[in-house]
Amino acid sequence: MSADGPMLPRLHAREHGDHPPFRYPDYKSTAARSPDQDLVSILATLSEATGPGPAWSEVSPEDADLTTNAGTGGVAIGARIIVTGRVLDAAGNGVPDTLVEIWQANAAGRYAHWRETEYDAPLDPNFLGVGQCHTDADGTYRFLTIRPGPYPWGNHHNAWRPAHIHLSLMGPSLGSRLVTQLYFDGDPMLHLDPIYCSAPPQSRHRMLAHYDHEVTEADWATGWRFDIVLAGAEATPVEQEEA
Amino acid sequence: MAGAGPGRPAPLGQTPSQTLGPFFGMLLGRPGDANMADESVAGERIRVTGVVFDGHGAPIEDGLVEVWQANSAGRYRHPVDDRDDLPLLDGFTGFGRCPTDHPTGSWSVVTLRPGQVPDGRGGLQAPHLNLVLQARGMLDPVFTRVYFDDELSNDDDLVLAGVPEQRRHTLVASRGDDVDGLATFHLDLHVQGEHETVFFDV
Ligand SMILES: [Fe+2]
Questions:
Q1: Which of residues 149-178 of B touch A (CB under 8 A)?
Q2: Could you give the angle at the alpha carbon of A197 between the alpha carbons of A193 and A202, nearest 5°?
Q3: Which residue ranges form the domains of chain A, and what is each CATH number?
Q4: Cα A199 to Cα A23, A217, A226, B27, B135, distances in angstroms
Q5: How far is it, in rounded angstroms, from Cα B64 to Cα B80?
Q6: What was the pLDDT predicted at B1?
Q7: B139 with A33: CB under 8 angstroms?
């Protein structure tokens, strides 16, 4: 700590060129929900070098098995998958003990959700489609869930969202906040999806989960690997050595 | 700040942002997420509320507003903020979130009036909330701040000073009538258009 306050960690700016633009005409809802003005640069202060990740992780329960967490005693219908990977800062350090929240449609492509959808696909009473877990000391997270189905949406005629899982992470600092979507490598619908394609060509592949036979468990579930790289502050190790 | 310095490996490519979609608020919101401080926490409890609008002036009814702030002593609950001479307050993380209401687009949190935190340039920042706004139709999060119109220290705040003067008002919440005995501040967020909120490159 100095007279100016605590020593701040190294911050990695958001690489805007690797993220979607605010306005992406093929995704129609962006038209009126995208800023016109340029972002205003800001001092990197304690406000930007901290964030809710560490504190929020302490208070949030773990709930990493979406096949049973509806609490009905039954199990969700669909192809069981293990989704795992590491959460990394931009320097490649694992981000330990951070909350990962996911939400997704069921195997039929339907969200368990009160606002009615017009898509007439079955609900699964044993599947909420919501889960959360913490990364371990190495930054690794792991979920057991059901492979989600694609679903139609109203963006354009015959528009379908390819199968995807939404993920939300807080990370080490305010600027590491990330909400993204996991897609499945090899899905033939990806290039038709304006949300997937809103990410630039050189970075969109980072949203693909890859089949990993090492993760697959015999007679149980196929395994998919998905690593996540966050902007913002470099991670604080769980166990700090005395300098 | 980012980028490879001498002898430093190039940073990894960041995972692209994607829209929150319409379902987060319904599926993941938990009761109490927007009540950041109950009566037992030391400090002045306040309510901060507003409406989120799109570029047509229509309410954004499926958004998510997240708040990150220092406690009333001006300390963040975070390992980087190692000023142990300032208290951490039991029951207060400094984080809250509120899905915007369907169909009004309004959000509201009850929290502590934050204290001042260092600006890293030898001074103190005016009390402020850090806000993250996301919604369906927004492919990236936007970051802004909420200041309070009854704080004299706003005049000395380096971040506010870095904002074009004619746009500063988009960051300053105004105190209205108390609600349920709590000082209540109002600030609408405009994602686009004539009244567009200042968004920072955090
Ligand atoms: Fe979705």
A1: 158-159, 162-164, 167
A2: 150
A3: 11-233 (2.60.130.10)
A4: 11, 32, 17, 25, 17
A5: 26
A6: 43
A7: no
Q: Is the ipTM of this complex over 0.90?
A: yes
Whether A50 and A175 have beta carbons less than 8 Å apart is answered as no
Whole-number Å distance between alpha carbons of A154 and A194: 12
pLDDT value of residue B40: 92
CA pair distance A200, A15, nearest whole angstrom: 11
Q: Which domains does chain B have, with CATH numbers?
A: 32-190 (2.60.130.10)
Helix/strand/coil percent split, chain B, to 5: 10, 30, 60
% of chain A with per-residue pLDDT over 90 = 86
pLDDT tens-place string over residues A178-195: 999 999 999 999 999 999
The pLDDT of residue A237 is 63
A229 to B82: CB separation less than 8 angstroms, yes or no? no
**What pLDDT is recorded for position A115?**
66
B94: left (phi over 0), alpha (psi -120 to 50) or beta: left
Residues of B in contact with A46 (CB under 8 A): 70, 76, 80-81, 117-118, 120
Distance CA B63, CA B26 (A): 11
Mean pLDDT over the full length of chain A:
93
Q: What mean pLDDT value characterizes chain B? A: 93
The reported pLDDT for the residue numbered B2 is: 46
For residue B26, give the nearest of A115, A202, A231 by CB distance: A115
Q: Do A13 and B143 touch (CB under 8 A)?
A: no
B2 CB neighbours in chain A (<8 A) are 11-13, 15, 90
DSSP H/E element including B50: strand B45-53
pLDDT, tens digit, for every residue of A61-93?
A: 789 999 999 999 999 999 999 999 999 999 999
Pairing mode, if any, of strands A208-211 and B45-53?
unpaired
Interface check B194 vs A, CB under 8 A: no
Residues B96-135: tens digit of each pLDDT: 999 999 999 999 999 999 999 999 999 999 999 999 999 9
Tell me whether residue A24 is one of the annotated catalytic residues. no
Q: What is the pTM of this model?
A: 0.95
Spatial distance between the Cα atoms of B54 and A145, rounded to a whole number of angstroms: 35
Within 10 Å of residue A96's Cβ, how many Cβ atoms?
21
Q: Which amino acid is at A141?
A: Y
- Six token digits for residue B167: 């746009």
Identify which of A18, A55, A181 has the shortest CB distance to residue B94.
A55
